[in-house]
Structure formats: C-alpha cells, structure tokens
Design a protein that fits this description.
heterodimer; A: 340 residues; alpha+beta; 4-stranded mixed beta sheet; 11 strands; B: 160 residues; Ubiquitin-like (UB roll); DNA polymerase, domain 1; 5 helices; globular; binds FE2/S2 (inorganic) cluster; N-heterocyclic_Hydroxylase (chain A); AldOxase/xan_DH_Mopterin-bd_sf (chain A); Xanthine dehydrogenase family protein molybdopterin-binding subunit (chain A); oxidoreductase activity (chain A); AldOxase/xan_DH_MoCoBD2 (chain A)
Chain lengths: 340, 160
C-alpha cells in the first residue's frame, strides 16, 4: 500500500443570477408608527444570511440603525414577487431591489421630517443613529420615529417604498447564438492537496487553499461562513455524494443517511480562504454573492489532484474508491505525475 | 393502544404524562410535553438532530422508548439558557457562526454539552468524536468544532 500525494488546481467564473425572464426580484419597505422599518421580501433565508444582509442594506440606505430594521420573508403568497433564493442571486438581485425600495421610503421620511421642521427636505441628513437634522445644524433635528409618526398621524403619508431589480432578458441572436445572460461574475481559484491510497482507492483531502472574489463582502463573517460550508459541499460532491446508485441497478441507490454518503466532522481538511473584494458596479454596495460558487472549484480541483497523484483521469462524480482502483488497474498501476 | 403514565425530570422540572405504549421519546417531548427544541430529522437514528441527554448521556430521542426515561433526568436545548443568560455553548455557537439553517443545532448543542459536562477541556479530536453522530448540511463542521472548543476555553461558564 502506498499513499500518493497529489495537488490539483481549478479556477472558475461564476455568473450571478440567471437570464430567464430577466430574473426579477421585488422588495417593499415601510415604516411602522414607532419609526422602525419593515422590509418585506419573498426570498427565503435558509441559513445563507438573506435576512442579515438585506437588513444591513436597508439600514444603510434609509440612514437608520440596523436595529431599527426588521426583515419579513414569511410568505411568498403575501410578499412581493421574487424569483427565489438560488443561483447565488439573493444579495445581488434582492439587495438591489431593497435599495430601490428603501430610497423611496427614505425620501418620504425626509419630506415628513422637513414638514415638521419647516425646512427644505434637500437640507436634511440622517445621522444613522435614528435622527434627521439640518445639514450643519445638528440641533435642528427630529427623530426618525417622530418623523414617521407625524407622517402617519398628522400628514397622512405612508412612509413606504417599492423596489424591483430586473436585468432585461437577453435574447439569443438567431444566427450566432450570442447572448449576454449575465451582468455580474464572481470568481474563485483553489488548490487542493490529497492523498490517494493505491490499495483501497480512497482519496483523503489534506488541505484546501482558496481565493474567492465576491464583490464587496457586505457581511464578512457570513461570507466566510458560506465559503467554509460551501466548500465542504464541494468536497462532498467530489468524493461522496450522489443521488444516483453507485451500482447500475436503481435499487442500490441511497434512500437514507446510512447510504447517502457525506464527509463527517472527521473527514474535513484545513481550508485557508482569502476573500478578494472587487466591488461589482451593478451590485448593492458592490456585493455579488458567494452562493453556489463556494462549492464549484473544489470538484475539478479534486479531480485534477487525483490525476496528479496517480495518473488517473476521472470524469464522473463522485470519485469513489472503486473508480480510482479501476482507473489505476486500467493504466497498469499508479503513474504519479510531476510534482509542483 | 393503551396509554402509559410516565414521570421524568425535563430540564430540572417534573413531568407527568400519558404516552402511548411504544412511543418514542422525541414524540413524547414534542407532542406530549410541547418541548419543540429537539428536532425530527430522519426518525431512524442517522442524523442526530433529535439528540437529548438522559442522565447526562447523549441519546437519539427518536430511537429511545419513552418508557425507559421513567424516573430519569432528561435535558434538551430548551433548558440550556437560564432566563436571558445563555449557556457558554450557545454564545460560542453565535460567535463562531456555527449555525446556518439551524436544523442540526439542537443536536449539536446537546452532543457538545454531554462532552463538556464530562470533559471540560476536550481536544479537537474529542470534539470531532463527540459530534460525529450528528449530520450538518450547511456549516462544513469546522465552525461547530471551533465553537465547542471556544466554549470549553471560556470554562463552560454561563454568561449573559
Ligand atoms: S431524528 Fe433521531 S437521529 Fe435523526
Ligand atoms: S446549520 Fe444547517 S444543518 Fe447544520
């Protein structure tokens, strides 16, 4: 039995969102009588941080503390329309919709404040702490809560805003097939080190080193969290997971967690991540979306590392011990490739 | 089916309940007592999210006959915090971003608590071993392992 160390590299361009129907998302923002704001969305937070990041975006745009913003993603029947939480589109599409809605709501709030202070709305600024004051004269001020209360109870205004983000659908040129389905790409590059056991065919991931370019990291800890978890999924897809049976007959397919294989806490490898920030011109505050891209570079990098370790080119996932052993047998024994 | 009276301690307070014979502890906790903190994942002992402690030992409540906890002490995530005072593990899970969707979290917390209660300063390997019966789909495990180690470092203190 010999362990063969291998190193594989992969880099990817990852499109944010999709082209279908222009991929729109809407957001609605309104103030409550207590001056706190509600953001209504239909894009669900399934742990990726949709609520946190749209809350930050709304607070920043409205000019109020993040604590004063609630995000409600409760029900896609009653909420504004959204294509959904997938395709790494949430931050980019929904974030832009939230900015548009929050801008509109903010302008009503500023008008309401101006009427109360008897000044021109253009002379007003927010301090981000819950106050609106005259530029250069902080003492001439009103709280955002008082402004929203006045709008609601005295002025008869709704402090609210609507937002939509839509990248116009790009048609396919009938002659060339050319189209521009994507306005925003995220990028990643990864180096994976593995060991291949030439007796058992087992592949062990030793270390991952990666760089992810995600636009501006709007919430750096959430970005990091996504990258770590997503890369684990990539490793899982590369070496373990499949809904297809490992063997030809359908009845050998996995039906529960005993048979649907995934790497456990003992199978993970150190993963060193660099996050590169290149704000996207059309992203909300420059944000793109880590999303699915977290997983993508791991699969080709692992496949390349297997080739580097034993000279076997496997082009069907997952890379199971059986495929590795058959591959090694087919080339008459392991053929380690040049080391780095 | 006949119902059977069961009495046990749940997070330090007495429970008396009639449960159908043969029902599992997870069902009795969730539907009988109304403690929704242990989750139903697979119902067959393979995911770990239903983990509770029985006399301090981690148990898969979906596979535990409710009758067997008669007179025993059961702990769930609902008993971790004392009022507004979160348990060190809960703090550490937040600080280390150890939850995304949160589905595995109750089981992870209880598996980790069982470990720290008997071994206040575990090695990384011991943490891995302690949570190896619990599946997480989201985090890649690393943040969870780090959270448990951080909670141990904080001395397992409660702080609010
Ligand atoms: S629900 Fe008990 S182990 Fe999955
Ligand atoms: S946080 Fe989603 S399963 Fe662990």
């Amino acid at each position: 039995m010999t362990l063969h160390r291998g190193r594989g590299f992969a880099s990817i361009n990852y499109p944010i969102g999709m082209n279908l129907g222009g991929d729109p998302s809407q957001a609605l923002v309104h103030s409550n009588p207590d001056g706190k704001f509600m953001v209504a969305l239909s894009s669900i937070d399934l742990g990726q941080g949709m609520k946190s990041v749209t809350r930050q975006i709304a607070a920043e745009t409205l000019g109020i503390p993040v604590e004063d913003v609630y995000v409600d993603t409760a029900d896609s029947d009653t909420g504004p329309h959204c294509m959904g939480s997938f395709a790494s589109r949430g931050t980019h599409r929904v974030g832009n919709a939230v900015i548009a809605a929050a801008r509109e709501a903010r302008s009503v709030m500023m008008e309401a404040a101006a009427q109360e202070l008897e000044v021109n709305p253009d002379d007003l600024v927010t301090d981000g702490k819950g106050n609106i004051h005259v530029k250069g004269a902080p003492s001439k001020s009103i709280t955002t809560a008082a402004a929203c209360g006045a709008a609601q109870f005295k002025q008869g205004r709704t402090v609210s805003g609507r937002g939509i983000f839509l990248v116009p659908l790009s048609d396919v040129d009938p002659d060339t097939g050319e189209m521009t389905p994507v306005t925003c790409f995220a990028h990643a590059a990864m180096v994976v080190d593995i060991d291949v056991d030439d007796e058992t065919g087992e592949v062990t991931v030793i270390e991952m080193n990666s760089a992810y370019e995600v636009g501006r990291a709007l919430n750096p800890r959430l970005v990091e969290q996504q990258l770590i978890g997503g890369a684990w999924m990539g490793m899982s897809h590369a070496l373990w997971e499949t809904t297809e049976p490992y063997y030809p007959d359908r009845i050998h397919g996995p039906v529960d967690f005993n048979e649907y294989l995934m790497p456990g806490p003992g199978d993970i490898a150190p993963h060193h991540i660099s996050v590169l920030e290149r704000p996207a011109p059309d992203g909300p505050f420059g944000g793109k979306g880590p999303g699915e891209m977290c997983a993508n570079p791991v699969l080709p990098a692992v496949a390349n590392a297997v080739f580097n370790a034993v000279g076997v080119r496997i082009d069907e996932l997952p890379i199971t011990p059986e495929k590795v052993l058959r591959g090694i047998a087919a080339i008459g024994g392991p053929q380690p490739q040049p080391k780095w | 089916m006949a119902k059977k009276p069961i009495q046990f301690q749940l997070n330090g307070s007495g429970q008396a309940i009639f449960a159908e014979e043969g029902s599992n502890l997870l069902d009795v906790l969730r539907r009988g007592v109304g403690d929704l903190s242990p989750k139903y994942g697979c119902g067959q002992g393979t995911c770990g999210t239903c983990t509770v402690l029985v006399n301090g030992e981690p148990r898969l409540s979906c596979l535990t006959l409710a009758e067997t906890v008669e007179g025993q002490s059961v702990e769930t995530t609902a008993g971790l915090a004392h009022g507004p005072q979160l348990h060190a593990l809960q703090h550490a899970f937040m600080d280390n971003f150890a939850a995304q969707c949160g589905y595995c979290t109750p089981g992870m917390l209880m598996a980790a608590k069982a470990l720290l209660d008997r071994n206040p300063s575990p090695s990384r390997e011991e943490v891995v071993e302690a949570i190896s019966g619990n599946i997480c789909r989201c985090t890649g495990y690393e943040p969870i392992i780090n959270a448990v180690l951080a909670a141990a470092q904080s001395g397992g203190r409660r702080y609010g």
